[in-house]
Write a structure and sequence with these properties.
This protein is α/β, with parallel strands linked by helices. Helices cover about 35% and strands about 20% of the residues. The protein has helices at about 25-35, 60-75, 90-100, 130-140, 150-155, 165-175, 220-235, 240-255, 270-275; strands spanning about 10-20, 40-50, 55-60, 80-85, 110-115, 145, 180-185, 195-200, 205-210.
């Protein structure tokens, strides 16, 4: 017996670090691991963050972000990639250039999941205001699937979503902007008794509905959903199958979330390994 295995599926997260460990690249790596996928990182920013908020942000130089992408793509190979916190327009432009060079994103062989992170759930900014236009022009057209929450939808499209019809309008707007698929998450829909996410591929809508758990501990939920979709794409799933899987996965993660510190605790992808 040699003990030598074949290289597992690989996924790259281009994201910020959350020192509290609940969101950002820490959530992505946990989720990749729970899917048997080798996770790699291109770090965009280091946040000073805990369960009550973000106390500081240090951006990584754009060239260093791009070099991290080139380095792992050139040697290890990337089965699928996702973006999270990108911090600035300069970093977004550097990421877009590097993605093209290494063949990641719509029109290239390797799928890209765009989680257009704009702020933490405490309301602390994670993206410069003037960087929104760069997300629209540089990254939405490269997205195999874009996964905004309702606040991000409002920032990107100007649409104030109040119901499923609004989710449809937002999905149409993002596909028109160039995304191949749009997944409009419904976690922030006021008064809803279920949690409905809506997927649109430019022709058909798919409603992904599930229970709404009564918990405030959903830190990292958007990251974890997008990372689960990315992991499944890296394993060879189609977009509809990867998204359907992601929705079932995040439901269990929310159900298994836990309190942490004095504020908001994280969702947990570890149910998959525990049971
Ligand atoms: N309380 C909840 N119970 C079950 N699922 C939830 C809950 N809150 C959010 N979700 C799910 O978690 C994912 C992330 O949701 P959302 O809160 O809309 O985005 P974000 O975490 O990016 O702000 C979505 O799939 C959503 O349906
Ligand atoms: C470094 C970093 N990246 C992303 C986030 C967003 O996390 P959260 O506030 O929990 O929002 P969702 O992951 O649920 O979209 C963050 N706080 N820090």
């Amino acid at each position: 017996m040699t003990g030598v295995r074949q290289q597992p599926p690989t996924a790259l997260t281009i994201a910020g670090s959350d020192s509290g460990g609940g969101a950002g690249l820490q959530a992505d790596l946990r989720t990749f691991f729970a899917h048997g996928v080798h996770g790699m990182t291109a770090i965009t920013a280091v946040t000073v963050q805990n369960s009550v908020g973000v106390q500081g942000v240090t951006e990584i130089p754009p060239g260093v972000v791009a070099d991290q992408i080139r380095s792992v793509a050139g040697d290890i190979g990337v089965g699928a990639a996702k973006t999270g916190m990108l911090a600035s327009a300069e970093i977004i432009r550097a990421v877009a250039g590097a993605l093209d060079e290494v063949g990641i994103g719509a029109g290239h062989p390797t799928p890209l999941v765009l989680d257009p992170v704009a702020a933490s759930m405490h309301g602390d900014p994670l993206l410069a205001e003037q960087a929104l236009e760069a997300i629209r022009t540089e990254l939405v057209p490269r997205a195999t699937v874009v996964t905004p929450n309702l606040d991000e939808v409002r920032l990107l499209t100007g649409i104030d979503v109040a119901d499923t019809d609004g989710q449809r309008d937002a999905a149409r707007a993002l596909v028109k902007m160039g995304a191949r698929h749009a997944l409009i998450k419904g976690g922030h829909l006021k008064g809803a008794t279920d949690c409905l996410d809506l997927l649109y591929d430019g022709a058909e809508f798919t409603e992904l509905s599930g229970p709404r758990y009564d918990t405030e501990h959903t830190h990292g939920g958007g990251d974890t959903l997008a990372a689960a979709i990315t992991a499944e794409l890296a394993r060879g799933a189609t977009v509809p199958d990867a998204v359907a899987h992601g929705k079932r996965f995040i439901e269990r993660c929310v159900a298994d979330s836990y309190p942490l510190g004095a504020g908001i605790g994280p969702v947990s992808p570890l149910w998959r390994l525990e049971g």
